[in-house]
Amino acid sequence: MKKLIRNYHFFVLGLIGLVLNSCNTRKFKIWVGTNNEQKIYNLKYGEHKRQKMDVFLPSDYPQDSPVVLIVHGGAWKYGRKEHMIQIQKMLFKNQIPSININYRLVSKHLTYKEQLEDINSAIEKFNSLSEKSELLPNNYILLGESAGGHLALLYGYQNPDKIKKIISLSGPTDFYSQEYLNSFYSKYTSGTVQKMVGAKFHRKNLSEDFQKASPIANVTNVPTLLFQGNQDFLVNQKQGLALDSVLTKMNIPHKLVFMDKTGHAPRFFNKKKRDSIIYPNILEWIKN
Known about the structure:
Blueprint: H1 8-20, E1 29-32, E2 38-44, E3 52-57, E4 67-71, H2 85-93, E5 98-101, H3 112-130, E6 140-145, H4 147-158, E7 163-169, H5 178-181, H6 184-197, H7 209-212, E8 224-229, H8 237-249, E9 254-259, H9 271-287
Parallel strand pairs: 4-5, 4-6, 6-7, 7-8, 8-9
Antiparallel strand pairs: 1-2, 2-3, 3-5
Protein name: Alpha/beta hydrolase
Keywords: Hydrolase
Domain BD-FAE-like: 53-246
């Protein structure tokens, strides 16, 4: 087992050097616990004010331990990393290193593509620090919720050289298939989806941009854990079921945790399911 304390001074000095190059250092904080574990808050990985991440490093972990990179939800245009802090604390308690990121939000000039770029930038930034933290570069598990689940799936499938596993909680998967286009679900999500994709949603003449933005059309051999509620009105249950079917046909290691009488992002609203179903499945997927 490796201990970060061996390189603690070099790691912290490196972080401080990065921060001193920033024009805004007010919220940057480092906490060191009694067992030399560390929590680094608001480390910059880019110049935009949203490009910050929290890095939690437990006191003891093997060098080949994967780093879980957490991507928050919020319909691509809302949300922040603090909404995922309970998951990050749970991982920390179980000796799993993690990164929890903010990313640029969808606007008139920003789409999901820039959000994927932000995930990549966060990875490259931590890669530059991985040796000091005694971890391997490009050894990540992506964990995303809702819109963050979509981004985790899409980035993970497009970058199998960096991403070892994916975890998606209530993540949308399909914006182009005939089943989606014919569904009532597409009628009330198309406005949000077209802003995320950055192209007009023409139901009868859909741009290929919507296929490119769909994880289900970009699947590669990255093991995937899916959580889906059967009463999810924000991300219809068929989204998770459709990706599960594709992963099965392609013989890609995966698991679908399909929850009865469950709505969107259930860990927020159902402590029992969070502690007895969601967190245990996440830990098992990471460790096995």
